[in-house]
Design a protein that fits this description.
Helix content is 74%, strand content 0%. The chain has eight helices and no strands. It is globular, with a radius of gyration of 18 Å.
C-alpha cells in the first residue's frame, strides 16, 4: 500500500502546482500507459501520441481528481478511453512493431515464434474495441477484474464476458499454431 500513499502524496503536491510531483507520476506510469496504448492501437507512433495525450489530459484534469480510485486506475481509464476514441475513428491496419530481442538460437525457431506473435497481434487488433481493451488490461497489464470494470465503466460480469469472448476468438483464429 506504500505505492498508493506515495501516489496520493504526489497527486496532492501536483494539485498544489508542484511540477516535479507530476513528473514523478508520469515516470511511474509512462510504461504501463504506453503498453496499453501500443497493444490497443497496434502502432508505435499512435501509442506514443496517445500516451502523451493521456498525461496532458491527466494534468488538465488533475484538479478534479478526487482520489476515489487509484492513480493507476485513473490513468488506465484515460488511456483506454483515448484508445477507444482513436479506434472508433479508424480501423487499425498495422500489427505490433517487430521488436523482439535476438535469442541467438535456431533461426527457424525464431522465425516461427515471430510468426506466432504476429498471428496473435493480428487477431488482437481484429477484436472489437471493448473486448480488446478488457483483454489487454487483464492479460498484458495483469489488472484484476474489479479494476478493469472501473477503467471501462462497466460491471465485473461484463468484463469477464468480454475477456472470455476475446480469448475464444483469438484461440479459434490461432489454432493452427498449436
Amino acid at each position: 500500500m506504500v505505492v498508493d500513499v506515495d501516489d496520493r502524496i504526489l497527486v496532492g503536491a501536483a494539485q498544489a502546482g508542484d511540477l516535479d510531483a507530476f513528473a514523478a507520476l508520469v515516470r511511474r506510469y509512462e510504461g504501463p500507459v504506453f503498453r496499453v496504448a501500443l497493444r490497443m492501437l497496434a502502432s508505435h507512433a499512435d501509442a506514443q501520441d496517445v500516451s502523451q495525450d493521456t498525461f496532458v489530459r491527466a494534468w488538465q484534469a488533475l484538479g478534479r481528481f478526487r482520489g476515489d480510485s487509484a492513480v493507476g486506475t485513473w490513468l488506465y481509464r484515460i488511456v483506454t478511453r483515448r484508445c477507444l476514441d482513436v479506434l472508433a475513428a479508424r480501423r487499425p491496419t498495422a500489427v505490433l512493431d517487430d521488436r523482439h530481442p535476438a535469442d541467438g538460437g535456431d533461426p527457424a525457431a525464431s522465425a516461427e515464434q515471430r510468426e506466432r506473435l504476429h498471428a496473435v497481434a493480428r487477431e488482437l487488433a481484429a477484436l472489437p474495441a471493448d473486448q480488446r481493451a478488457a483483454l489487454v488490461l487483464r492479460e498484458f497489464e495483469g489488472l484484476p477484474y474489479e479494476q478493469i470494470a472501473k477503467v471501462l465503466d462497466t460491471t465485473v460480469p461484463a468484463i469477464k464476458g468480454r475477456i472470455h469472448r476475446a480469448r475464444l476468438t483469438v484461440l479459434k483464429q490461432t489454432t493452427t499454431w498449436r
